Amino acid sequence: MVRYLLPLAIAATLAGCVKPDPLTMTDAWVRLPAVPGRPAAGYFTLHGGTVAQTIVAANSDVSLRAEMHESTGGGGGPAGMTSLSTVTLPANAPLVFGPGGRHLMLFGVNPAVKPGDRVTLSATLSNGRRIAARAVVVAAGAPAPSF
After folding, report:
1. What's the angle, vertex CA 119, arms to CA 118 and CA 123, rounded to 5?
2. Distance, C-alpha 115 to centroid of its chain
3. Is 35 strand, coil or helix?
4. Is the CB of residue 68 less than 8 Å from the CB of residue 121?
């Protein structure tokens, strides 16, 4: 009997040593537009898991549509934005979606959303997994929240 229990005990111990994939979203926030009806912006940090992933979509529970964008210019050329269909999330590293860089454009934001509210932002990976976080909402022109 002992010879059967020992392998089971070892397997159970090793299973407890396996760490879950640390893929997470933190520091999420949304800046409302200065002009009602215009897009809001969503920001967050994704923390990569044990392997590189591809982000294929993003969403918010308070907008009709969300798109990944990246700010361009600033080096003497005209400023603008480029739409991103995918973004690579490196393994074991953070990926920041922040002002002046990668960010979400949130179109058709529910007009009932006000500063101080909490909304959900999510990112969808190519394998179908979704990572989400509650995001604090700030007014246009208000400082970014400190995390």
Report:
1. 140
2. 20
3. coil
4. no
Please identify which residue in the block is written with the tokens 């969403």.
59
Distance separating alpha carbons of residues 101 and 40, to the nearest angstrom: 15
The contacts found for 125-131 with CB under 8 angstroms, 24 or more apart, are 125/53, 125/54, 125/55, 125/56, 125/89, 126/53, 126/54, 126/55, 126/56, 126/86, 127/53, 129/23, 129/53, 131/23, 131/24, 131/25, 131/46
Cα separation values, 88 from 8, 51, 95, Å: 40, 11, 9
Q: CA 31, CA 47: separation in Å to the nearest integer?
A: 21
Please, are residues 60 and 120 in contact by the beta-carbon 8 Å criterion? yes
- Give pLDDT, residue 108: 97
Check: CB of residue 26 under 8 Å from CB of residue 147.
yes
pTM of model > 0.85: no
Give pLDDT tens digits for 81-125: 999 999 999 999 999 999 999 999 999 999 999 999 999 999 999
Task: In whole angstroms, give the CA distance from residue 51 to residue 130.
Answer: 15
